[in-house]
């Protein structure tokens, strides 16, 4: 195999990372429901991006087919050229601003009580790290003590400490309707996990779906000494869904800077909605205390900046309309451009120019 072919194979956007296989599936699925760009749009997009494709990694990860998808969802007047192909976002932008290896070690839910100790979060009941059960203060406890703590909480949620994409591996136990044997089997799952008090979410979010926790995905970028909010959406479950993930029937709706929702939302098939399947009209919805959510993630962004400057925060509102950090995504978190806004927001030009000046192939 000659050097050029080997390089092409290594930098193929579908092979840059095993994690990007999800992106490839999203692309193929989206193309079936997209709106093909015109030749004029194609020329304009290529002309805009040409200066930023000055490295092998940038060229091979940039895929114009994504614009057939963005063309379908670009309903709020954004500049189509500013949308960032998912392949480029993950393989170039995320790679440039984040240390994926270090992020994997730090982005462990069992570390949140240490790393984000003063940030509002769901209450930890107990946890497993390796083969050892610990309480919420990281003290070793027995299985019986863990069960007692869970029964006192009444309703708990168990999450794997790493790797919960699309809600994988999450278990819920409700002491009012389920037996202790079920709880015991959950606590004996042979992997690291954290057990938390079940969150009763705000009416402003539960109006969409009360059977899962609906979250705000707020993406921050620490760029040139300032934390910018580059993307902000609500990801909500479909009717009676148990998870809010787009791959499992969820919907996504953009949030405006004052906390009001945009008038249109989309599902994973790019179907457009003016109201949730449960009947709530998106344009009539206002998220309370949204400024507190923004202030919270901006403050926490500096704390993880040594590892990740581009962070996707999953935040919800509790029953008192106060923000809670549900999860951090220190690498591969991503924004949700199908909500109709570019991934890098108002600073797209500046960020792409900055990256292009660096030697990203050696980073």
Short description:
The chain contains 13 helices and twelve strands.
How would you sum up this structure, described in words?
The relative contact order is 0.15. The model is unreliable at 1-11 (pLDDT under 50). This protein has 13 helices and twelve strands. Helix 9 (143-153) crosses helix 10 (180-187). The chain is an alpha+beta fold and 363 residues long. The radius of gyration is 21 Å and the shape is globular. Helices cover 31% and strands 20% of the residues. The protein has three domains: 3-84, no CATH class; 100-114 and 201-351, ATP-grasp fold, B domain (D-amino Acid Aminotransferase, Chain A, domain 1, 2-Layer Sandwich); 123-197, Dna Ligase, domain 1 (2-Layer Sandwich). It has a seven-stranded antiparallel sheet, with helices on one face.
Give keywords.
363 residues; alpha+beta; D-amino Acid Aminotransferase, Chain A, domain 1; Dna Ligase, domain 1; seven-stranded antiparallel beta sheet; five-stranded antiparallel beta sheet; 13 helices; 12 strands; 31% helix; 20% strand; disordered N terminus
């Amino acid at each position: 195999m000659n050097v050029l072919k080997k390089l092409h194979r290594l930098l193929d956007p579908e092979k840059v990372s095993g994690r990007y296989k999800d992106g490839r599936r999203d692309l193929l699925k989206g193309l079936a429901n997209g709106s093909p760009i015109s030749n004029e749009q194609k020329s304009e997009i290529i002309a805009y991006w040409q200066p930023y494709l000055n490295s092998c990694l940038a060229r091979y990860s940039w895929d114009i087919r994504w614009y057939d998808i963005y063309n379908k969802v670009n309903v709020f007047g954004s500049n189509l050229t500013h949308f960032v192909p998912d392949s480029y976002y993950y393989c170039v932008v995320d790679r440039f601003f984040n240390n994926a290896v270090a992020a994997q070690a730090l982005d462990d839910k069992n570390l949140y009580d240490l790393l984000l100790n003063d940030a509002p979060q769901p209450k930890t009941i107990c946890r497993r790290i390796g083969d050892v059960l610990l309480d919420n203060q990281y003290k070793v406890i027995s299985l019986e003590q863990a069960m007692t703590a869970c029964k006192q909480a009444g309703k708990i949620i168990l999450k794997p400490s790493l790797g919960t994409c699309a809600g994988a591996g999450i278990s819920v136990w409700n002491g009012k309707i389920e037996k202790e044997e079920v709880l015991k089997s959950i606590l004996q799952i042979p992997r690291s996990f954290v057990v938390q008090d079940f969150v009763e979410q705000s009416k402003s979010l539960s109006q969409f779906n009360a059977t899962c926790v609906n979250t705000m995905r707020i993406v921050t970028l620490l760029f040139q000494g300032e934390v910018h909010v580059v993307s902000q959406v609500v990801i909500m479950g479909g009717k009676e869904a148990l998870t809010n993930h787009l791959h499992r029937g969820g919907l996504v709706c953009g949030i405006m800077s004052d906390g009001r929702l945009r008038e249109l939302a989309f599902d994973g098939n790019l179907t457009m909605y003016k109201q949730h399947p449960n009947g709530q009209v998106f344009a009539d919805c206002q998220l309370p205390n949204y400024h507190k959510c923004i202030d919270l993630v901006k403050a926490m962004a500096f704390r993880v900046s040594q590892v990740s400057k581009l962070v996707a925060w999953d935040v919800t509102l509790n029953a008192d309309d106060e923000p809670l950090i549900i999860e951090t995504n220190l690498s591969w978190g991503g924004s949700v451009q199908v909500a109709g806004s570019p991934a890098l927001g108002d600073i797209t030009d500046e960020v792409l120019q900055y990256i292009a000046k660096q030697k990203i192939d050696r980073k």
